[in-house]
Amino acid sequence: MLRLSECLPRENSRDYALRTFKENIINMDLPPGCIISESDLAAQMGLSRTPVREALIELSKVKIVEITPQKFSMVARINYDLVEESRFLREILECSVIELVCDMAAPQDIEQLEENVQLQNLYLARNASDQLMVMDNNFHAKLFDIAHKSQIYALTQNFSIHFDRVRRLALESVKDLKIVEDHAKILEAIRTNQPKQAKELMQIHLSRYKVDAVAIRAKYPEYF
Amino acid sequence: MLRLSECLPRENSRDYALRTFKENIINMDLPPGCIISESDLAAQMGLSRTPVREALIELSKVKIVEITPQKFSMVARINYDLVEESRFLREILECSVIELVCDMAAPQDIEQLEENVQLQNLYLARNASDQLMVMDNNFHAKLFDIAHKSQIYALTQNFSIHFDRVRRLALESVKDLKIVEDHAKILEAIRTNQPKQAKELMQIHLSRYKVDAVAIRAKYPEYF
DNA sequence: TGTGGGAAACTAGTATACCAGTTCTTGACA
DNA sequence: TGTCAAGAACTGGTATACTAGTTTCCCACA
Q: Which positions ≥6 away from A103 have C-beta within 8 Å?
């Protein structure tokens, strides 16, 4: 059963469906291997098949949804090759982008990043993990933005679901404290214009999310 | 007016439409700034709006097509920021992948690459530029394949249209001879397992496609 | 009881109808 | 002649209808 949220203002049905499916796939309400049908999802969301179908097609392009014509559609099982591709893509992109950022960041960009990190500290103190995660994503999106690579960031968002949902299953959750510290250090490297340092810090930062594939597979064999 | 080809066997209408639009956009039959309408394109292709619409949505995700609801849709004008993002993405991906390839290539992979390069030499001798281009794309796709990064390759294909169509406008055409030589050298670096060398060669190879933005803009101002 | 066939109930793909918003034209009126 | 309003003709977004292919199940028949 789908976990629904409200359709946002100025959000069309297709984007609403897409957002809903992504959320439900990452939080495992639509678990790996789950059989889905356009008409069933449409009914659950109170939409017609058209926007639902368009959303599923988009997810099938990154192999998060597998559509077998005239037979069935399925939320893709976890495929470690794709998880690794997803992780690889993020690593090389973020590490390239952070170097650019050191050269390209304007004072007001740095201000915005500072604001972001301060909010992260606030949410960390409040134990507001969800809000912290939003600011985390925000931080990385802002880096792509500064480097004028927003479209590349957008391009990778669906594909990253492969990695995101595995991270969510990880038994050892990454400590929020470490994440925020990382961001602060990265920001400091940007401020002092040390691209090599920033890149190294980013690599360390991203490696924190490494997951124990064997353990996850042992615990959730039906997801593979 | 659309330049049409046949619908391939086992290709559905949506993929047929998508392939057709991509071809027509790259070869400028659908030039930058061209106003398009779902129903018009559907009529030209002998399809209904549905598969045409699904294809246009996919192209709009990478900003090759701009859809303004209730108003009009347009083939995006050339945007150098996006061209640069497209070039940047290709460069960092190819350069990362080629390093992996040096470690991961199996003997039969190298055989296939050799076969490919031999065919390239054949088509070069025959002045068969179209076929050469196919083998060129094939060569790079194979590299991603060897590195187990096929999905990343697929992910970037639509986005690369930004770069591809500008390359097609470039006044100085890249010499086929150089391209084939580059491929041969890269293959040699792979065979002898020299990742650094391979990466450098790849960078040189990709830099050949650099385009003179100012000259193109001067010649085709209506495309910007 | 076991087997084969056919209808029914599903699937996704495609076509069409309808809706809502925008633009442009046209014609009546000042 | 200029202006403005009504409506026609478009746009893309959504809903629905229909098509073709697959699976399931059940019943007739051996």
A: A193, A195
